[in-house]
Amino acid sequence: MKLLNTDDVEITYFNYQKRECAFRMSDGDHPMSILDLTLCVEGQMHYLYNGEHITLNAGDGILILPGSYRERYETNIPTLYASVNLLFNSEEDFEIEGYLPNVVNSDVLYLLDMFKKDFAVVSSRKDDKCLSIFNYIYNCIYETVCNKENPHVKAIKQYISDNLSKDLSLATLAAYVHLAPQYVCTLFKKETGMTITQFILKSRIDHAKMLISATSESILNIAEGCGFSDYCYFSHTFKKITGVSARQYRANLKK
């Protein structure tokens, strides 16, 4: 999903609080004109969405798209939930909808608290800030629902990210995930389209770019901190991947 254009989107409703019950809401006779994202943090909620009965338990959500039919049934269970409604003045494509299991994590809860705080403040940038937070929440949920990355590959990528300055030999990575080295090579290439060596080099150069941008550290020290013991090899690799030398990259940023 692309970032929302604030000229075409209006937040028409936001609520995040605990209720003694989830009250009934019926739009069964008319298609929805808005988008409704509801996240159940505690308790339980029951919906009829386009004819399908959906139960939200704690941690679940539902994304109801414009043009859909929705009913929510009253419950007598104390429920903490968040709902946000958006009105789109132009057509928008969404890659997920309906029941969203286990999508409320610590990141989403943090963003909901931020949304609640900004939504209550009178500010000229209120809508822009809240729409940005909605985008972040949507993409967090999207990753949870759609991320089917192999857990071994995910673990290897995280290990590489956490240990860029250290030895990242194939034997080290294979031992970390308790798999045979040759199998690790085959699996990683199949899942990512890159060899492990290519991924390590890209990760190290990406980290070097960030340090060159954000710090005044010497490029020699940055190269060593990113796992390059040979400065000439770092310089060659940096230019091959970015198209410019590390020094020129920093100079371009200053301009």
Descriptive notes:
45% of the residues lie in helices and 21% in strands. It has nine helices and nine strands. With 255 residues, it is α+β, with helices and mostly antiparallel strands. The model has no long low-confidence stretch (mean pLDDT 89). Helix 3 packs across helix 4. Strands 1-8-3-6-9 form a five-stranded antiparallel β-sheet, with helices on one face. Strands 2-7-4-5 form a four-stranded antiparallel β-sheet, with no helix packed on it. The protein is elongated, with a radius of gyration of 24 Å. It has two domains: 9-146, Regulatory protein AraC (Jelly Rolls, Sandwich); 151-254, Homeodomain-like (Arc Repressor Mutant, subunit A, Orthogonal Bundle), CATH 1.10.10.60.
Briefly summarize what is shown.
This protein has 255 residues and is of the alpha+beta class. The chain is 45% helix and 21% strand. Helix 1 (106-119) runs antiparallel to helix 2 (126-146) and helix 3 (151-162) crosses helix 4.
